[in-house]
Specification:
Mean pLDDT: 86
Number of strands: 0
Largest sheet: none
Distance between the termini: 27 Å
Number of helices: 14
Low-confidence stretches: none
Oligomer: single chain
Helix content: over 70%
Strand content: under 5%
Radius of gyration: 21 Å
């Protein structure tokens, strides 16, 4: 069984990654570097990082707030909130992108209002950020909710009893207890944000050098038969994925107790 598992992982993960890097370097390291120095490639990398830099912190804040509310309070609609948090896991990313088009597109619900004020959401950075936020917001919340439900609120209650304010209690008591699970969720959220294709494809308009993120740039180059450029860009995404995997494994190894508690349910 172990041998079969290793063989399957090699065939499904290691081999495809190896092919990506092999094709990226097929015409030499110089061609690989030149492909990544193209203005469209630089713009795609920069846009991907900008979108992730906006979406991931917002999802981290939302995840902490949602976990705090769900783990510490009982309220009507709690099950509905949990369902909404899980919704992006069950809905196609293409549908997630289409939602924003129906709201903010030229023919969308707010389309006329936006055009009157010369505001652009779809086919611009705000649309990319919104689409990315929607498909990635469960990651942080879902890491923190089980952990905070398992943890006692006694330390927080004691801090409040001793006169600490809510913000001080969060920074001094709550955050230290959830920091590794939070970092783990942020890593997963960031990996998904930078690799997202379906949702951002719907709202981007595929404008080269302007609204194409790195995954979309890979598709454009591959469709144009620019294989070296496509695989070079894909290798950057693969490299980011490998870095995320290494950091994820290191976190699991060093803080296995806390992280396993966060995923117990």
């Amino acid at each position: 069984m172990v041998l079969a598992s290793v063989a399957a992982m090699f065939a499904l993960v290691v081999l495809p990654l190896g092919i990506v890097f092999k094709e990226a370097l097929a015409q030499g390291f110089g061609a690989f570097v030149r492909a990544l120095e193209e203005p469209d490639a630089v713009a795609a990398i920069r846009l991907t990082l900008i979108v992730a830099a906006i979406a991931v912190p917002l999802n981290a804040v939302f995840g902490v707030a949602a976990a705090w509310c769900i783990a510490r309070f009982e309220f009507r609609g709690k099950s509905v909130l949990l369902t909404l948090i899980d919704l992006p896991f069950s809905v196609s990313p293409v549908v997630s992108g289409l939602v924003w088009v129906l709201l903010f597109g030229a023919q969308g619900f707010f389309g006329d209002w936006l055009m009157e004020r010369d505001l652009k959401i779809i086919f611009a950075l705000p649309g990319l950020v919104l689409a990315t936020i929607l498909v990635t917001f469960p990651f942080v919340a879902r890491e923190l909710i089980p952990l905070m439900q398992d943890q006692s609120a006694d330390e927080e209650a004691a801090a409040l009893t001793l006169g600490a304010g809510g913000l001080t209690t969060f920074w001094k008591v709550t955050l230290p207890n959830i920091r590794w699970a939070l970092l783990y969720g942020v890593l997963l959220c960031n990996a998904r944000a930078m690799g997202e294709f379906g949702a951002v494809s719907v709202v981007s308009g595929h404008i080269r050098g302007a609204t194409n993120t790195l995954p979309l740039h890979v598709e454009v180059l591959y469709n144009d038969y620019e294989s070296v450029g496509a695989f070079a860009a894909a290798s950057v995404l693969a490299g980011l994925g490998l870095v995320t995997l290494i950091l994820k494994t290191a976190l699991e190894w060093r803080h296995s107790g806390e992280l396993s508690a966060s995923r117990r349910h």
